[in-house]
Write a structure and sequence with these properties.
- By secondary structure, this protein is an all-alpha fold.
- It has one domain.
- The chain is 74% helix and 0% strand.
- The protein is flat and about 55 Å long.
- It starts with a helix and ends with a helix.
- The relative contact order is 0.05.
Length: 73
């Protein structure tokens, strides 16, 4: 059992290190974030398209109802 646990820990450590190295290389090659390259940071949010209080209340109520149904049924 200890050999399996040690092997699992070693594999997870290698995967973590490998992912960290690949992430660093990808960030170095990118030259900037995707939002900066696509021009999304300069975009303004239209207040008319945002949900109002009624829509937010319906979303919150639906979420609470879903949790209650899932818990009690």
């Amino acid at each position: 059992m200890n050999k399996h646990l040690f092997l699992l820990a070693a594999v997870l450590c290698l995967l973590f290190c490998f992912g960290f190295i690949l992430t660093e290389e990808a960030m170095a090659q990118g030259g900037g974030s995707l939002a900066e390259r696509e021009g999304l940071q300069a975009r303004e949010i239209d207040a008319d398209k945002l949900p109002g209080k009624l829509e937010m209340g319906l979303a919150l109520g639906s979420t609470i109802a879903m949790i209650a149904v899932y818990k009690y049924l």
